[in-house]
Specification:
Elements lengths: L42 H4 L1 H31 L5 E4 L3 E4 H27 L17 H17 L6 H13 L2 H6 L22 E3 L16 E6 L9 H8 L1 E5 L8 H5 L5 E5 L11 E3 L4 E3 L6 E3 L5 E4 L8 E2 L1 E3 L5 E3 L16
Antiparallel strand pairs: 1-2, 3-4, 4-5, 5-6, 6-11, 7-8, 8-9, 9-10, 12-13
Helix pairs in contact: 2-3, 2-5
Length: 352
């Protein structure tokens, strides 16, 4: 329906006289500006009932987007990961993936469709020619920009069409909830699991190579031995997770060469046990220099002095290697006297 079909008394008071002006080309000006075609008013500009229908249509689209977002969240929570459905002509697919894709697509599409319908039926559609202006922002330009912004806000009718404004803000506010629920796939919070390992009072130190419990006589001065907790087998389902925290590095020093008093009291006849996990980014330490009692991380060359509490003497590591307090049980085997007193490996967000 065009403005030609509406009685003249119902048309808006302002008429676009200049937009219909046409310049005629002649010999002196063969490329004359043809001007803009006459502006035709939309039915929504003339009939408030039609404008209300458009408003309700836009609001319905935004409401459908909100419902689709709720459906996305419900699908993510309620549908099992292993459930499949048959969809023609695709075949059997994951029910969760199908539901998530469908609801997310509807939520996005209806927000876009609502915005487009709003712009095409209710916002101002008058074409305006704006002359080129200098690049620098003069005070006059800034004033014009603010005036244009205020005019655009007024023409968008967002202040008068409260139903559109409310439902649009609701759709835009609820849609990000889809992303928040996807964060569940990152796993559960670590809690205190990163603070504890399999080491506990009475756990035997088992040689990683021979898989046999260690006696003090098995560790010679200047040697480097790697150990794991008793009961941790390579066939265990959680072996990689546990060994990444419990891997132990055992070195025997002459007691008189141990500078740190705490290290000496936690050792047994010069045998000291430190975490094998570098405190920089968690690489396994494996290079030992027996003359200096230094161990070197091969990844980024962090160097620790095992004769002085395994403190950092070079490299990017932030703190010393945690030490495990050890002793000997009644059968003559090396055993742990507890767990590490601080988290092993790199610093993390729960380290206090």
């Amino acid at each position: 329906m065009s403005s030609h079909d509406i009685p003249e008394e119902n048309l808006p008071a302002e008429q676009d006289t200049e937009s219909g002006a046409v310049a005629v080309a002649d010999e002196e000006n063969p490329f004359a500006d043809p001007g803009l075609p006459p502006h035709e008013h939309r039915i929504q500009d003339i009939d408030e009932r039609a404008a209300k229908r458009s408003e309700r249509t836009v609001a319905l689209l935004f409401t459908v987007s909100m419902l689709a977002t709720i459906g996305f969240i419900a699908s993510y929570v309620a549908i099992p990961n292993d459930k499949s459905i048959y969809v023609f002509p695709i075949g059997h697919i994951s029910a969760m993936n199908f539901a998530l894709g469908l609801t997310l697509g509807v939520a996005l599409f209806t927000i876009g469709a609502g915005a487009v319908h709003w712009a095409r039926t209710l916002m101002s559609d008058v074409e305006i020619a704006d002359e080129r202006h200098p690049v620098e922002a003069s005070p006059e330009v800034k004033a014009k920009v603010m005036a244009d912004f205020r005019q655009g806000a007024k023409e968008s009718v967002i202040g008068r069409r409260k139903l559109i404004r409310t439902t649009m803000l609701g759709a835009l506010a609820m849609f990000p909830l889809s992303g928040l629920f996807l964060l569940r796939d990152l796993g559960s919070l670590p809690g205190t699991k990163l603070r504890h390992t399999m080491w506990s009072k009475g756990k035997l130190l088992v040689n990683m190579n021979t898989n046999q419990p260690l006696r003090p006589s098995d560790v010679q001065v200047g040697s480097l031995t790697f150990a794991k907790p008793e009961g941790l087998e390579e066939t265990s389902e959680d072996f990689q997770v546990e060994i990444a925290k419990a891997a132990l590095m055992i070195v025997r020093l002459q007691p008189e060469n141990i500078k740190d008093k705490k290290e000496l009291s936690w050792s047994h006849e010069g045998i000291v046990a430190f975490s094998k996990i570098c405190t920089h980014v968690g690489c396994p330490i494996s290079l030992y220099e027996q003359q200096t009692h230094h161990v070197l991380c091969p990844c980024h060359q962090s160097t620790f002095d095992l004769s002085d509490g395994a403190r950092v003497i070079f490299g990017p590591a932030g703190h010393a290697l945690p030490q495990l307090r050890i002793g000997v049980n009644a059968d003559g085997y090396l055993e742990a006297l507890g767990d590490f007193e601080e988290p092993v490996g790199p610093a993390f967000w729960e380290r206090g």
